[in-house]
Amino acid sequence: MISHLPRNEKIPIFNPNDAQCAIIPGSSGNQVSCPELADDIKYCREEGKKILISLGGENAGYELRSPAEATAAADQIWNTYLGGGQSGVWNRPFGEVEVDGIDLDLEQPAGVKGLYWPIFIDELRSYYMSKPGRNGKSDYLITSSPQCPFPDVIISPALENKRSWFDILFIQFYNNYCTPTNGDGFNFNEWAEWARSSSLNPEVKLFLGSVASPEAASSGGYVPLSELLEVSSSTLEDCEKARVFWQGAHAHNSTYNPFGGISIWDASWTSSEYTEAVKSGLASIQIQVNKASESSLFKRSEEPVNDTESTSRKGRSRVNSTRKSTWQRRYYGRGRSRHHHGV
Q1: What CA–CA distances, in Å, run from 291 to 28, 30, 75, 257, 286?
Q2: Residues near 246 by Cβ (< 8 Å), separated by ≥ 6?
Q3: Which one from 36, 96, 107, 273 is the annotated catalytic residue?
Q4: Is residue 170 part of a domain?
Q5: Which one-letter DSSP state was computed for residue 171?
């Protein structure tokens, strides 16, 4: 994780939290070299896995205080971890090995809008679009791990009015009131509504972020695997029903379903058996929802109301029309109550 961006040149300081790295003598801010970790990253990427470098965390030190700092940070990260730095003058922790993108885990300063993160994202994405990486790589990612209350305050300037590009959001549905076990507090539908109507990327994917153990979430939010898969099933189903319902009004996005899967914090709490169970469970759920989508169960028998007739409250929407179908009323107006059955 990049845990610190010093204010001078915004050199990203990598905090590996293990013994695989060594401080580079004379480097600014005690930058590190991590050849063993670089080999691990290379192996995973060769196996088809996407590797992201995370920026942020619970401790302060990576805040952006001006447009200049935002552009400087993007330049540093591009050259230190991604496709840049090919001139040889950059201290790269993983050497010639590059990662596939950056994930913004912005938690500080708490409760304060990050006004300059949209500039950071714009600058970094401009590198993605205009500067080829090693071996011609161009499919770099920009993701974020926001807190589940919508909108996450710190990243909100980047979310509003189709302002900034995100490929994926790994939404943290834990350590907050909007966990899947909190009835109508669970608000994946609100994030899905943003994805369909306000995301700059019309195909952004949303992951239901959970924790693999009660010890992994200090403020609560752990959901047993069977219940997590049940929540994922009903969430994917809701998103698919919304897709079918709105496809006539949004023809440009008629195949789009924002649900991307489950993300787990963190790998150290999981096992291969756990991750395989998540993967197989999601695959089974997708098959069931696809079958239902192809049947008459998800067919829309009425014209959708205009987006401007909708209002949102607490992660739910109430549509000001008497033309709502039964499922539409459930989707926009219900609380979450279908979590008690196993998969």
Answers
A1: 57, 55, 46, 15, 9
A2: 196, 304
A3: 107
A4: yes
A5: E
Per-residue pLDDT of 201-216, as tens digits, reads 999 999 999 999 999 9
Phi, psi for residue 115 in degrees, rounded to 5: -65, -25
First to last CA, the chain: 35
pTM of the predicted model as reported, rounded to 2 decimal places: 0.85
Question: Into how many domains does the chain fold?
Answer: 1
Residue 217 lies in a domain: yes
Average pLDDT over residues 69-91: 92
Peptide bond connecting 266 to the previous residue in cis, omega within 30 degrees of 0: yes
Could you confirm whether 107 is annotated as catalytic? yes
Residue 243: per-residue pLDDT: 87
Cβ 239 vs Cβ 205: under 8 Å: no
Q: What number of residues does the chain have?
A: 343
Please report, for the domain that includes residue 184, its CATH number.
3.20.20.80
Domain range for 150 is: 48-333
